[in-house]
Amino acid sequence: MPNPRVAIIGGGISGLATAYFLARQGIGSTLIEKTNRLGGLIRTDHIDGCYLEAGPDSFLSSKPAVIELADELGDLRAQLIPSNDGARRIFIARDGKLVPMPSGMAMMVPGQWSPALRSPLFSLETKLRFVRETFYRPRTRTADISVGEFVADHFGRAVLETAAEPLLTGVYGGDVANLSARSVLPRFLEYEAEYGSLIRGVKAARKHAGPGLGFFQSFRGGMQMLTDSLAQASSGAVQVVHGEATRIERSNDHWRVRVHESLEVDEVVLSCPAYVSAALLENLQPALATELAAIPYTSAVLVTLLYDRAALPASGQSFGFLVPRAERRSVAAVTWTHGKFPEKMSPGVAGARAFLVGADAVEASRVPEADLVRTVESELDRLAGIRAKPARWLVHSWPNSMPQYVLGHGDRRERIRELLSHAPGLHVIGNAYEGVGVPDCVRLAKETANKIAERRSPDPRLVGVMKSN
Prior knowledge:
The protein is α/β, with parallel strands linked by helices. Helices cover 38% and strands 22% of the residues. It is built from 18 helices and 20 strands. The longest helix has 18 residues, at 438-455. It is globular, with a radius of gyration of 23 Å.
């Protein structure tokens, strides 16, 4: 292939998508990945006829970037499957038992009155608080506010601790007292500014919502179908190097990336964790490195257990359950794969994905896997009444994998953008900046590829390669 003009550091979904979108525009790239596989946190294990996700199991249907990408990739669109929304119930652990979250909830916001007001999950005081919240007047906040303060301001601490904290722990693994409402809950801040009441905002948004595709989407053969398809589709225009980038330098109008040897390119895309990007830039761009290094991360451990489906109680016929901090011993959340995506499971097999996050994940990564599995079994027994032994189990540890959008994250993102404007040809993307989901990563990758394409003319030979793929 022609000499690549772009170096992409990090072979996860962000890096693969960037390489693909560049290739579509006739621009070659070198994709540098320090591990022996591509895909990053996206990985699917095929065991006993089941497609078991080691990382994200799906993406939000409301964010179109992945669905649009699947359309581009041809046969992949036919592999999309919606979540089984007939089983879209979430339970909350309370006093050692699983209590269903009221139907119609939009995170911690009631979308339907009857289920919320009848629910044993909320006290009479909280239900009265829901009613009073509908009289809140529109308000625009000039300063960032924590998720904890924002939710408590509308609904009180009980809703924060019972619903909001466990819901967000599964996504960010962080402390709601430190997370930024502006960066984590922007849609709800918009509701507050327009309606005052989040409840009225949710109800108004649902009136204008189009037909649903399933709340979540995934792929019949697992999420790795997406990353594998990207790698295959762009293979003629992408040179993959398995090795660790150790340094980035500026040489006249070019960038030099050191891996096994020096690679000289026109553009560098850092699609690795922010702290890795910071280490690569600390000598070249110290101010930018400081901002990147200030984005904190937490860890996650995923334990997947396979059971005979007949051994599970009724709560297993749902999407899963969440464990508030006051109830938590180790496991923060459990997803039932057979409830959420039955097409990924063999008949008669149930799958439980148990998540440990933050300090619990760090501690879990230090113990033998068999001991960790016994701990998770004990928690499933205590909270869900599962006394059967799993037929199979898998453990995946993801240290420092979950970026935290803490207070001031939006301002930091703007400072990073400003510093990058003075370093033409340097780009940072990934889940640490403008959204942690797969669609957010794909969207940023496409925006970055388009920005590069505006600066660089295509290579006709690569355009021909992509047309033939």
